[in-house]
Write a sequence for this structure.
């Protein structure tokens, strides 16, 4: 069984032609970083997003609506790889939560009150 037989062409294409690779400055105000998973078993995903001012008009809220089932469907993931789409959903939420916190640092203290 080849890689192409096991996963969709989109996954193979991103594997063979990586893009958006590297790290952003996690301390930058316009960068959100999400690190999720279980390092003990090797299932870890780091996702960083950088957002411009136009995203304040609803883009973050739209991105938060992305579900693991949407990701799995788009990538045609087989059932044994569904945990990957769950990690991706969690990473998106974590990165956007980090971004939102940087926009309003008082938000975290509001949650605790």
């Amino acid at each position: 069984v080849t890689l192409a037989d096991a996963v969709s062409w989109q996954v193979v294409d991103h594997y063979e032609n990586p893009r958006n690779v590297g790290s952003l400055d996690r301390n930058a105000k316009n960068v959100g970083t999400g690190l999720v998973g279980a390092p003990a078993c090797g299932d870890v995903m780091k996702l960083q997003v950088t957002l411009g001012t136009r995203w304040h008009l609803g883009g973050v809220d739209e991105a938060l609506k992305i579900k693991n089932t949407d990701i799995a469907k788009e990538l045609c993931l087989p059932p044994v790889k569904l945990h990957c789409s769950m990690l991706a959903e969690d990473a998106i939420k974590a990165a956007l939560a980090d971004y939102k916190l940087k926009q309003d640092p008082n938000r975290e203290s509001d949650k605790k009150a």
About this structure: The longest helix spans residues 82-103. The chain has a mean pLDDT of 84.
